[in-house]
Amino acid sequence: MVAVNKKIITRTKKLSRDLEKTRSMIPDSLFVYNPLTYALDMHLAYIEKYAIENTKILFLGMNPGPFGMTQNGIPFGEKSFVKDYFHFDYEIQKPKHEHPSRPIQGLDCSRSEVSGKRFWSLMRDHYGNSNSLMGQVYVANYCPLVFLEKTKTAKNVTPDKLPLDVRIIISEICDEYLWDTQKILKCQNLIGIGKYAEKKLKNETYPYSSILHPSPASPLANKGWSERASAKLEELNIW
User: What is the CATH number of the domain that holds 57?
Assistant: First the structure.
């Protein structure tokens, strides 16, 4: 029988291939990065370890942060946690077309992913070392693609801001992957990291809800995010 993590790996490679086919539809005004290509080894290492059947919580984000998964392939991948908590160190390549203001530097990236640092700090404080997360937490992003404006600032464009026709096709691909993942993992609780992700998790079979997104762009998240997230998970009787 094929192991659960191997099934997720196979399905993730298909997701990447399917999303690559949408590139021609995406406006020329955007750079598109796909960490499931240039940071595939790192991402597969995460799946290999944490894709476990009947995991207690599936946390779902929107899409990769510019200094997290975009750089290293780990969901909410704050580099210090990738190196010192997960102890992952796999080769990171380069996207074919790279924005000069957003070079892919892997674990050498000089910027911190604040959302990832907040999220994984909370998981570490609650569960302990990274091995303790196994069977407890699995984290994914709804859409693994990164969209950057072709401007000097390389502003991040979230999937909900894409043109409708492109959004529909990408959403269909990502919806299928999400529910195939859940069908394989059979996670007991579905938690969106932010309201956008919660909407994507809407399901009649499994309990779903959300926690506040830890982004520094959110005033509430800058005022005791970990306490708010913990309180919500306790209210849901998950913690």
Answer: 3.40.470.10
Sign of the dihedral through C-alpha 144, 145, 148, 154: positive
- Is the confidence at residue 140, as pLDDT, over 90? yes
Query: By residue range, what is the domain housing residue 9?
Result: 4-235
pLDDT digits (tens, 9 = 90+) for 180-237: 999 999 999 999 999 999 999 987 578 899 999 999 989 999 999 999 999 999 999 9
**Cα 62 off chain centre by:** 7
pLDDT score recorded for residue 63: 94
Tokens 């529909």 locate to: 168
Token pair listed for 128: 């302990």
Give CA–CA dist 207/191, Å, rounded.
9
Give residue 2's pLDDT.
74
pLDDT at 1: 63
CA-wise closest residue to 46 among 104, 1, 20, 85? 85
Question: Token digits for 104?
Answer: 């892919």
| Number of domains composing the chain | 1
- Distances in Å between the Cα of 40 and the Cα atoms of 9, 97, 122, 237 are 10, 17, 26, 35
* Contact between residue 81 and residue 214 where contact means Cβ atoms under 8 Å apart: no
Rounded to the nearest 10°, the torsion over CA 36, 47, 108, 105 is 0
Asked if 101 and 154 touch (Cβ cutoff 8 Å), the reply is: yes
Global pTM? 0.95
